[in-house]
Amino acid sequence: MPVTDVRGTDGRVAVTLTAAETQVPYDGGTRWAMTYNGTTPGPTLRVHPGDTLSITLVNDLAEPTSLHTHGLHVSPEQDDPFVMVEPGRSRTFTYDIPKDQQPGTYWYHPHVHQMTAQQVAAGLSGAIIVEGADDTTLADVSTDRVLVVNDPPITTANPDEGQSSGGSMMGHDGSMMGDSGTDMMTAMMGRTGPRLLTNGQDGVTLTDPAGKLERVHVVNATASTSLRLAYDGAQMLRLASPGGRLAAPQQASAVELAPGERTELVLVPGADGGTLTAQRLANEGRGGPTGEPEVVARVEPGAGADTSVLPASFHSDDRDLFAPDVKVARTRAITLDGHMDPTIDGKPFDADTVNFTAKEGTVEEWVIKNNTPMVHPIHLHTWPFQTEGQAGWQDVVSVPAYGEKVIRVPFDDFTGTTVIHCHILDHEDTGMMAVIKVVP
Questions:
Q1: Residue 68 to residue 119: CA distance in whole angstroms
Q2: Does the reported pTM lie above 0.85?
Q3: DSSP letter string over 44-106?
Q4: Containing H/E element for 230?
Q5: Which residues of 86-112 are buried (b: 16+ CB within 10 A; e: fewer)?
């Protein structure tokens, strides 16, 4: 199933996304999915810094849905996680892409509390590519593929039909139900499907008769699964972190993507081509591998191999928030608690309660401590951040079981109210989410 591109003119990109339950092509037949405009993933939205992006969301589902532009540095007022679109209704969302938005790979998906995991797992997602000054050069020497990876239920009908929201994809009997409507085991462990799909299929083959370098944007659009990407061709180069392009291409033997994270890679073939695989990682303990690596994409031997044609460096945000001269306005301790009932600072999510307040224009240091036996990928809306010891900018930080991570967040450009939450989306749905308000 091809993924369509949506581009704009004169600085405006406009698209209508219709969310609906659909039978989509799969393995010579069809399978059930939730789709945008009849496909999963939905269209790839291509924008530039300074553009205005307008998305009209039409809800043809039997339940509320919403829209979150994950990773974009846009105002909480425009990317409002509390705005729902009821069944049979529509709403137009307008996003002013900042002129200093970092080029890179982002994505969109629903954000309905207690239904997010179900809707994302079922297929409601799509990529947003922000193209910058380096993309013209890259387009001359490389392909520009988008690979959205998900592990949906592979069924002929909605597996959650008749439940209040959410549901098990793991074969549990549903006798113990959490607040989100999922059985307790799924709510605790996070839902997974039987196999990883790329753009809705069992892997894709990348062909390019012009012999350009193979460049791919990979989105981990699973509801709960961390992935380790590996490549058996001659060479893999990493061009971006989730928050935008790196300062220069980096050699990579493997790249780990938590749920919600993205990367941009160049895949150089060997004599027999190459295969990009994804290994699922457990959410418990040390996050070891589960099952066998699964094919994401195959590269044919005729793909380009001359990496000298790539830019030696990229236009990127080269600030170092951990430099000695950075003024930290506040150091904040945040705890991740609970196993059966995951929370932030011991408090279940309440949309009417502001858990954290920060001041616009300041940098805060957050020490995020995990008191649970599970890895928790924590996502902050609106404001990208840096993680101590990690290259580039992020919007998700994976906090290991019984461990901690230190991040620094620059609360630039916007005030307003949004959320921080675990991107094991069943954890978000069951309460591991908090409200943050940034004030002038």
A1: 12
A2: yes
A3: EEEE-TT-EEEEEEEE-SSS-B--EEET----TTTS-TT--B-TT-EEEEEEE--TTPPPEEE
A4: strand 226-231
A5: eeeeeeebebebbeebbbbbbbbbbbb
What is the amino acid identity at position 286? R
- Which neighbouring-strand residues pair with 379? 396, 421
Would you say 54 and 14 are in contact if contact means Cβ atoms under 8 Å apart? Answer: yes
Residue for token pair 């460049």:
215
Q: Specify the pLDDT at position 162.
A: 58
Token pair recorded at residue 329: 């306005």
Single-letter amino acid, residue 211: G
CATH T-level fold of 5-130: Immunoglobulin-like (2.60.40)
Tell me how far apart the alpha carbons of residues 165 and 178 are, in angstroms, rounded to a whole number.
Answer: 10
Stretch among 9-18, 118-127, 286-295, 397-406 having the lowest mean pLDDT:
286-295
pLDDT in tens, 170-212: 332 232 344 444 677 777 888 999 999 999 999 999 987 678 9
- Between CA 109 and CA 120, with CA 115 as vertex, the angle to 5 degrees is 35
Domain 330-439 class?
A: mainly beta
What integer is the mean pLDDT of 262-287?
95
Classified as helix, coil or strand, 11 is coil
Which fold, 146-154+193-309? Immunoglobulin-like (2.60.40)
Fold match flag (146-154+193-309 vs 330-439): yes
Rg (CA), the chain: 20
